[in-house]
Amino acid sequence: MTTTNVRVVAGVVLSLVLLLSTWQLAILTHDIPAYSLPGPVATLGHILEHSGLLAARAGATASAAAAGIVVAAVLALALAVAVVRWPVLQRPVTGYALVLRTIPIVGVAPLITLVVGRGLWTSVLCVVIVATFTLFVSAVTSVRSAPSALDDLARLYQAGFARRCRTIYLPSAWAGLVVGLRITVPLSVMAVILSEWLSGRPGLGSLMALSQANRDTPMLWAATVVAAALGLLAYAAPDVITHIAERRGYTVAVGTQEV
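Structure tokens predicted for ABC transporter permease (259 residues):
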């Protein structure tokens, strides 16, 4: 295991330890009854007891979040390239992306469910709404901050837009996209859980809603802990993916490829 991966794992473990310690301290200092807030030991025992169910639901939530992030990232990159190619599009595209970002998921998720049903696409579209604007702004900002000398050199050698896009714009956009992913990936997990809660699609969100309706407090808190752990892993995922890509010979830096 590399140093970067060790740091990521250590950060996740430390965050969980701090969360569990604060949890237990709150129970001890405020004398909270177990039927309202089970202790971390009891909750971890419940997680182990129902590990199969929780793992399946967490996998469904994670897969929906990953699919939504992929769609949002592709859309953001396409919009960023279009804005670079045709600068006149920046104002309308940014405006529409901002409007998309301000739509409340709580209000729009039931409408999406009515249109596309209770399947995967409901969660994917919720993630697209949450993530596209941030990823688009990060990608465009990164592309525009690339050294202009690279673009001038490419034009001097009569490189077409497609080649400039492949060797300059997209690598630069990916560097900014990684920054945006650190923000949007955890938010995407939250958006998927909320969409599952409202639509009933199998996942952690619907499990939490069902547990609340049945007053199954241990399962509700177990699902909450699993969701928190999934969010922490989601936050670390962009750095891990970038590190793996760099070890395989890819790069997010601008100017390392031949024009």
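The two ends are 35 Å apart (CA to CA).
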